[in-house]
Amino acid sequence: MFTIDQINEIHDRHGKAATLPAYLNALREIGVQESVSFVTDGHTEHRGADGYVVSTPPAHQTFAIAEVSDRAMLAEALKVKDYVKMSKALADSGIQKWIFDTHALTISYLDKAGNTLLEEDVT
Question: Could you give the CA distance from residue 62 to residue 65 in angstroms, rounded to a whole number?
Answer without folding.
Answer: 10
